[in-house]
Amino acid sequence: MKRIDTDKLIPGMITAEDVYNYNNQLILPKGIILNDRTITKLAFYSILSVRVDDQVPDTSLDKASYDLSYSEKIRMSPDFVQFRKEFEEDVNNFKSVMNDVVEKGTPLDVDKLMNHTLNILDITATHPNVFDMLHCMKEYDDATYVHSMNVALICNIFARWMRMNESEICMATVSGLLHDIGKTKIPDNIIKKPGKLTDSEYTLVQTHPQEGYRILQSSQLDPEVLNAVLMHHERCDGTGYPSHLTGQEIGKYAKMVSIADVYDAMTSARIYRGPLCPFKAIALFESEGLQKYDAHCILTFLENVVNTYLLNEVRLSNGLTGHIVFVNRNKLSAPTVQTDHGFIDLSIRPDITIEALI
């Protein structure tokens, strides 16, 4: 392993460790085969030097052998392999703990819950590319538990973006982990139904916040966490459920969980569809969510999510591909993209959208 100045890096070199910026945000994971784009990304973030493997890069390699998409490299990276292994173990542990609580009435031990089900936080803490990793995960049978783990991880990162202290970060994370526990009381055939729910089925599903609150109310959980379980489907404009609360009536962790919950639901694979492109999800939040969610929370979340995709390669609806080079803060779903045919400012080209990350 040796350290190389960024301006002396050449395509084919392999990162020997994770590369972070001055905010401790992951820029490139260990094991990435550098190409022109990733080297430019390092320079963009003012990374002065990088540790790379000692092996001499084979510059005779066909371009396709090292110029894989960032998403493909994430899937191939040691970090993702470790993430997936720990994720699956933590989901199984979480399911075991909550089955004891739901089926046997065992009191919930929050310390045990954190110690046995969130080991993955050691991998993902301060790693914004957790969104890339979650986006790359396949669909699992235990949808409720997997979704809850996803939301917990998103809430953990979200709380850091909100500059919360460690105690608040912990409570936001636990809120995300437990928010949907009431769904264990809903029949599996309804939870996993691929088609549209009937009115009666939807009414039953809408009881899961109260069911979750009932399951957990005898525990020693902080009242704000219990409120997050009960209120995560409330909306600031009063259109949510179960109590049609508005604005300040909704707990702070509930406001965060509501955003993480919807974002994960939109960007995760489902039986009946693949994962939605993050920029399509962001566009939906912009068009429908700015009144429904707390303004500070939703803008903080969306701005930071978009920033994690800066310099990522994307495919546009007009068939062109390019790299995101500038974030338009007034329209986060429509950044400026550099293509082989020039720059396209999507904020002034409503006829063109980002179709996919590639």
How many helices in DSSP terms?
A: 16
Instruction: Find the structural class using helix and strand composition.
Output: alpha+beta
- Our estimate of the beta-strand percent is 5-15%
- Principal-axes shape call: globular
Low-confidence stretches: 59-67
Computed over alpha carbons, the radius of gyration is 21 Å
Mean pLDDT: 86
Describe this structure in words.
This protein is α+β, with helices and mostly antiparallel strands and 358 residues long. The protein folds into 3 domains: 2-63, Alpha-Beta Complex (Molybdopterin biosynthesis moea protein, domain 2); 78-276, Hypothetical protein af1432 (Orthogonal Bundle); 309-357, SH3 type barrels. The protein is 47% helix and 10% strand. The chain contains 16 helices and 9 strands. The chain has a 5-stranded antiparallel beta sheet. A two-stranded antiparallel sheet has the order 1-4. A hairpin with a 4-residue loop joins strand 5 and strand 6. The model is unreliable at 59-67 (pLDDT under 50).
List the helices and strands and how they pair.
Layout: E1 2-5, E2 19-20, E3 26-28, H1 36-44, E4 49-52, H2 63-66, H3 70-76, H4 78-104, H5 110-117, H6 121-124, H7 130-136, H8 143-161, H9 166-178, H10 188-191, H11 199-205, H12 208-216, H13 223-231, H14 252-267, H15 278-289, H16 295-308, E5 313-316, E6 321-326, E7 336-339, E8 342-345, E9 354-357
Antiparallel strand pairs: 1-4, 2-3, 5-6, 5-9, 6-7, 7-8
Helix pairs in contact: 8-9, 8-14, 9-13, 9-14, 12-13, 13-14
